[in-house]
Write a structure and sequence with these properties.
Strand content: 25-35%
Number of helices: 20
Distance between the termini: 27 Å
Oligomer: single chain
Length: about 575
């Protein structure tokens, strides 16, 4: 079963390209299909411009799938059949078809996917809908039918409003079932779920036979996001917290609240959220959601060629709460420039944080919540509990580290020795930094707390001293870590590249530039994993060896802006080794 799960992870690797293409400067987006998407959908995912799916898939390792995976899936299918689990057999059969298509490139024959792909994912209430523009959409339905035949799942061709579709019925128990609905309209495949919690009008909207009364096209929400964040217009995604809050309190009629009530009633929990349906909660909870309305994402750059793919994607946790955002911005710290350089080094991570501002931030957030005028009883109870905890105690905990602006670690290279009983680092090229307004004062404070350090003198001109002078440790290979003060940074480093990076820190002022930064090179890290496994005699599945061939570089930054909490990523995937 382990290899089946790995097969699922590989499917996720293929989908990663679609994910990044799905985080969609300027330029609008308008397509007729958005007329069928309700403006109050709680989630939306899209590829509005054609994404070269087949071209991207060719960048993945050619031996990503193996006969071992086929064997494992075959065994899983046989076990599910023996248990009489028809639904499990159906989904295992579909996974088997997916893995086969990845291995032999039969995307069109199996799923109808051509080189270019557009798609939409959204919800009609709680009813999920996926629509995709395919080259041969009937092939997708044929694959579903093949899996159903092998599993013993019943299906039938039906129609609604002159739109034909195929219903695949999955029994949940003796009295209830859910159906997978698949339909084709103008080369657009629609897949949705039909259950007792939605009605025929919902299904008609999902099948694109009727337009939404208020649609995404008419609301202009997609274009507003694209223009606001200067994305490339190929796609966007979001989760709508305001719609979720509205459904929870039922402040106005909606498909989402009706379906939610129906599900809770079916579960015998009809009163579960009645505490949120009071007049006070109907005012307070949507007001909070309005301050944190959505998580939205989009791309500013997508390039796919025969040799590589580049994705620049943003994710924004939106907020209109200027007081909280202003307080969060005060704790932004410093992240060294090398931390987010994905083209050099093995792995880096840096936290930018102004430690001296943590206590004021906690006090601001605490005061904003405890002093808010709520009339919603659950919020009032939480407010009373919060009042019993005074965040000013944090001031004592952070006082000694006041002036610290960030910490980072960067590993440029590491050589492991697996010849002994336990793995040892025989050589490492790495750098640790602690950035502060006044590093010397910080060191003197540490000396006062640790008497053993009192006699240690660290030159302020960047001249390093050996860490062994401070805390002697058994030498390991070529590791002789150096400690230095480089400008406003305390650095500990070993190795040629890290020595140069430490020297470069002298010219970097501790200006606030973010809260988190990181970079990663996937293939060399996987090489270490494979070497470690080989040293212990552990046999890793072939799929892991294949994934180790994937050349992927990633950098990520997180910052607090006037729009909210913004995360920006740059990913490069080149043709596998």
């Amino acid at each position: 079963m382990k290899k089946v799960l790995i097969g699922g992870a590989v499917a996720a690797a293929v989908a990663a390209g679609l994910y990044y293409s799905n985080q969609g400067a300027g330029g609008g987006a308008s397509m007729a299909e958005l007329d069928y998407v309700p403006a109050d959908t709680v989630f939306f995912a899209s590829q509005l411009k054609p994404f070269p799916y087949k071209q991207y898939a060719q960048l993945l390792p050619s031996d990503m799938m193996s006969s071992g995976t086929d064997e494992e899936l075959t065994q899983a299918i046989e076990r599910a059949k023996a248990q009489g689990n028809v639904n499990a057999v159906f989904f295992f059969e579909l996974l088997n078809q997916y893995e086969s298509s990845v291995r032999d490139g039969s995307y069109t024959q199996t799923w109808g996917i051509g080189n270019d792909l557009r798609y939409l994912g959204y919800a009609i209430g709680l009813m999920p809908v996926m629509r995709a523009e395919l080259e041969q959409p009937q092939n997708f339905i044929n694959t579903l039918k093949k899996a159903a035949d092998n599993a013993g799942v019943s299906y039938a061709d039906e129609s609604l409003n002159s739109q034909s579709y195929t219903r695949f019925t999955l029994a949940l128990d003796d009295s209830s079932s859910v159906a997978i609905i698949a339909a084709i309209k103008d080369n657009w495949l629609t897949v949705t779920l039909d259950s007792e919690f939605n009605n025929q009008d919902d299904l008609a909207l999902a099948l694109a036979t009727e337009k939404a009364q208020t649609s995404l096209n008419s609301s202009n929400r997609v274009n507003d996001y694209i223009n606001k964040y200067q994305w490339d217009g190929s796609s966007i995604s979001y989760v709508n917290f305001e719609a979720l809050a509205s459904a929870a309190v039922a402040d106005k009629p909606s498909r989402l609240s009706s379906m939610l009530d129906a599900i809770l009633s079916k579960m015998g929990q009809a009163q579960a959220i009645q505490a949120l349906r009071t007049p006070g909660c109907k005012a307070d909870i949507p007001a909070i959601a309005a301050k944190w309305p959505a998580i939205v994402s989009g791309t500013s750059n997508v390039k796919v060629s025969d040799s590589s793919a580049d994705f620049d994607a943003d994710i924004v946790i939106e907020s209109t709460d200027k007081d909280i955002l202003g307080a969060l911005q005060t704790v932004r710290g410093f992240i060294p420039s090398h931390v987010t350089n994905k083209d050099d080094g093995l792995f880096s991570v840096g936290y930018g944080i102004d430690v001296g501002k943590l206590a004021p931030l906690a006090n601001t957030v605490w005061s904003a919540f405890t002093q808010a005028e709520f009339t919603c009883e659950p919020l009032m109870m939480a407010q009373q509990q919060a009042k019993q905890s005074n965040p000013m105690a944090m001031a004592m905990a952070t006082g000694m580290a006041a002036g610290v602006k960030g910490i980072s670690i960067s590993v440029q290279n590491v050589v492991m020795d697996f010849s002994g009983y336990t793995p040892q680092v025989s050589d490492i090229d790495a750098l640790v930094t602690l950035s502060a307004d006044d590093p010397t004062t910080l060191i003197n404070t540490a000396k006062g707390l640790v008497p053993q350090l009192a006699q240690i003198e660290i030159p302020s001109d960047g001249t390093p001293i050996s860490m062994n002078e401070i805390m002697p440790v058994p030498a390991s290979g070529n590791v002789d870590a150096q400690l230095a003060i480089n400008g406003q940074h305390i650095t500990v480093y070993n190795g040629e590249k890290s020595t140069a990076l430490a020297a470069d820190m002298s010219s970097q002022a501790v200006d606030a530039n973010g809260v988190l930064g990181m970079s990663l090179q996937f293939a060399p890290m996987m090489d270490i994993v494979l070497e470690a496994a080989a040293s212990t005699g552990e046999e890793l599945p072939p799929e892991i060896h294949s994934l180790a061939k994937q050349n992927m570089k990633l950098s990520l930054t997180t910052d607090i802006t006037d729009n909210g909490i913004e995360m920006k990523s740059e990913t490069n995937i080149s043709k596998s080794k």
